[in-house]
Specification:
Elements lengths: L2 E5 L3 E3 L9 E4 L4 E3 L8 E2 L8 E3 L2 H18 L5 E2 L8 E2 L2 E4 L10 E5 L8 E5 L9 E5 L9 E5 L2 E4 L8 E4 L2 E4 L3
Parallel strand pairs: 1-3, 2-4, 3-6, 7-9, 8-10, 9-11, 10-12, 11-13, 13-15, 14-16
Antiparallel strand pairs: 5-6
Length: 180
């Protein structure tokens, strides 16, 4: 199943009103806030196009797959070291490390697939933070824009308000979408 949001202990928190395309899950915890749910069940919520999975077998299985994915992505190594702020860069497919900074994106960055429909970017990060209004543009990849973009973070990710972000975020601790 496709999870747009998948959390673990202690909870998944939503500050309504949101629009989440896909399933929302948490496991092994059963704590949600800002959603309508019944612990240990699969339920619907008007803010979610899929279902809310609270410590169900589906959410438990997804957690195992997430751990495997993070391990496999980490195993691809550090790759090329980029500056701490990606603003203004054009980045071609590959594996990259972004060092910690007060912000890792304060404007726009372009990911150029060079016409390859199977283009792949992996960003190894440790506390990714974007400023409000930042933009990740994915270009020249044919169909499937963003499918080959992964942000593998060893800590927490915070996206500033009005950020336009492409890719799959896999964070060890938390992912915060700032509304202020």
């Amino acid at each position: 199943a496709t999870f747009a949001v998948l959390g673990t202990t202690p909870s998944v928190t939503n500050v309504p009103t949101s629009t989440i395309v896909g399933n929302v899950g948490v496991s092994p915890a059963q704590a949600f806030s800002g959603f309508n749910f019944t612990a240990g069940t699969s339920t619907s919520d008007p803010q979610v196009t899929g279902t809310v999975e609270s410590n169900t077998p589906l959410a438990q299985s997804a957690q195992g797959l997430l751990t495997t994915a993070r391990t496999n992505l980490s195993g691809l190594g550090a790759g090329t070291l980029l500056p701490s702020d990606l603003t203004g860069l054009t980045i071609y497919p590959g594996v990259f490390t972004i060092p910690a900074g007060s912000t890792n994106l304060s404007g726009a960055v372009t990911l150029d697939g060079l016409g390859n429909a199977d283009a792949f970017w992996l960003f190894q990060t440790g506390g990714l933070t974007t400023s409000s209004g930042s933009v990740v543009n994915v270009t020249n990849v044919g169909t499937g824009t963003g499918v080959g973009v992964f942000w593998n973070d060893t800590s927490s990710v915070t996206l500033g308000s009005s950020t336009s972000f492409e890719g799959n975020i896999l964070a060890l601790t938390s992912i915060v979408l700032d509304s202020t």
